[in-house]
Each structure stands twice: as C-alpha cells, then as structure tokens.
Amino acid sequence: MSAGGAGGQGFTLDPDAATSAAGKLNICADQLEEAGKALADALAAEGECWGDDESGQEFAKDYVPGAEGSVKAFTSIVEGIRALKTNVETAVQSMEGADETVRGVLKEGGGV
C-alpha cells in the first residue's frame, strides 16, 4: 500500500509487516512489566532499611520519591507501549480501508 506524490513524496506501508511489528510490542511490554514488578518486589523486600536517625531521614527524602517514581515509570512505559501497539493496528486498518475505498471508486470509473 503506497501513497505517492510529486517529487517522490509519500510513503509505502506493508500492512502485514506493520501488524507483525505491532504484535511484538506486546512482548516488549510484557517484559518491561515483569521488570517493573521485580523492581517493586525488591524495593518492598528491602523496606525502610536506612534507619530512623537523622542521616536515615535525609537519605529517605530523596530515596523514597525516587524509588516510587521508578516503579510508576515502568507502569507508564508499559501503558504507552500497549497504546502504541493499538494505534499502529488502528492506523493499518484505516490505511487499508482508505485503500479499498479508492480502489472501489477507481473500479467504477469515478474520480477520487
């Protein structure tokens, strides 16, 4: 499926290749989700091991928000990759639909 234009502008889309690549995004998302869970489990297992003294409290001021942010970042990245997969699949379907519409119009001898 291709879209051409003057001066070689445009693009070519291989729907099967794009759909296959989109499917592989789930593998990536699953692996990152597992890594995020492993990180969360490891952090939870350590607990608040820095102590309650002044230096421990100073350490916790930066460590706790950073650790929590890291776990949340994994979740956000996984959600983003899964959304990307869906968006690629939707774009392929839209391009195929548009291609079919144009093909139908041209078969009937009409203009686009």
From TrEMBL:
This is WXG100 family type VII secretion target. It comes from Amycolatopsis albispora. SUPFAM superfamilies: EsxAB dimer-like. InterPro entries: ESAT-6-like_sf (IPR036689).
